[in-house]
Amino acid sequence: ILHEHIQRVTEGIDTFLAGLGYAREGHYYRVTEENDHTYILVSHAGSSGAVLGHLLNLPFPFVCSTMSPDFTGISIINFRGKTGQLITPRVELLSDARHIDGLRVEMEYKQ
User: Distance (Å, rounded) from C-alpha 60 to C-alpha 65?
Assistant: First the structure.
């Protein structure tokens, strides 16, 4: 069931990105239309891990265990490229939760 969920999420993100001008080709994305807009995607930690793993070509368990996407964590993934270029998404910020300063510590040690 987990594999099916990951596949559904990764197919969905590729469809979404294709609409923005980034077509998946193997482990890369072809820029079909230059785009300098900023978009916000909101998801649960598991879906975020599936998307990050897919974009960066990393296994889902590795992403979840080493990058541990935080709830409400903000990540910035850069897709800069010129039309026709084959690009790899670049991580500029990963799971930043500074906007909830102190909340994480209280949640971890309150139990």
Answer: 9
